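Q&A log
Question type: sequence-to-structure
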Amino acid sequence: MASSGKMEGPSAPALRRDPYEVLSVSRDSSDQEIKSAYRKLALKYHPDKNASNPEASELFKEVAYSYSILSDPEKRRQYDTAGFEALENEGMDMEIDLSNLGTVNTMFAALFSKLGVPIKTTVSPTVLEEAMNGTVTVRPLPVGTSAMGKVEKQSAHFFGVTISEEQAHSGIVVRATSVAQSKFKLLFFEQEINGGYGLALQEDSQKTGKVTSAGMYFLHFQVYRMDSTVNALAMAKDPEAAFFKRLEGLQPCEVSTLKPGTHIFAVYGDNFFKPASYTIEAMCAKSYEDTTERLKEIEAKILEKRNDLRQFETEYRKALAQFQEATARYTQEKEVVDDMLRERDDIHSSFTTERTITSSLGAGSSSSRYPVEQNKTESPENGNIDSRDKSSKKKWFNLNLNRSDKRA
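Response status: OK
Response body:
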């Protein structure tokens, strides 16, 4: 299924190998197995830990690229079905590690991000390694409370949320917001066997109104996250039809429930140059029963609507093609009718004596303003009629005079 070849993009490896082979996992591996394999290899090949090994950087890119495919259910399905070609047709995007970009490239990335170009970033391997080793400082965040902070770029603040059996049964929501509209990630870590923490979920902050926010919802039903880069890429490829891709960025969250105990969350500074200001809070869904039920309903409706749009897109494109064909014919037919009517008017205009006389006058004959009327009065036939009229009037006048003379 896999095919080798070059890839495009600054974060892509030079050659492509089967992602399953790169991560050393089987095709029926679970998401957790793939995630665990990626963590180990990402830490093993990270350039910061392999300064004397130039091949490590390429291996790190290959591992990240392979994981970006297998960690996404839709991309994994596309790859399993048709290989890399299917991903190329969908405009596959890469995640970049800001800590490994350098100053110049970071400035370019910041510029593109400010212009609205979607740039997906990874969590710094340094943060992941510290979490894996269990050397991070964890602040308690009791359910029903909030905490504020300012985290440096490519750094993280860790929080421990301890939940009871009842709270776990009701569901838990953890949200982070930034009134300064900072760019950050909300992270969720799972306890590893060695006592450390492994990254399980991450949510990029999104602008909602006048703030940026990210949330995780453990409510015992499938909750979805929205990947805005999918719609942004679709918009760049086909602005008119991007509406149909708007819901394609909806991806199922891997974790929907939490067990009683302490769970580790973190706010990661994803800004390019400055710290990220934030407020993080943990809530029990029992206090938001109506809201939780409404969320469950709207998630189901959005999924149903996504399926409807997929079907409607086919109908729309077919109708659009017919409309464009009809519009083209309309323009063509209008031009033909206009030309025919114009020619008809020209033919009507050609029926005139003015043009014939004018052309004859141009041969040197004397001209007058009304040549047609002059020609009629000068004809011999018209001259005879005028003579008869004058003769009749003269006789009638003389007759009256004669009668008058006799009476006198």
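Response note: The first strand starts at residue 95 and ends at 96.
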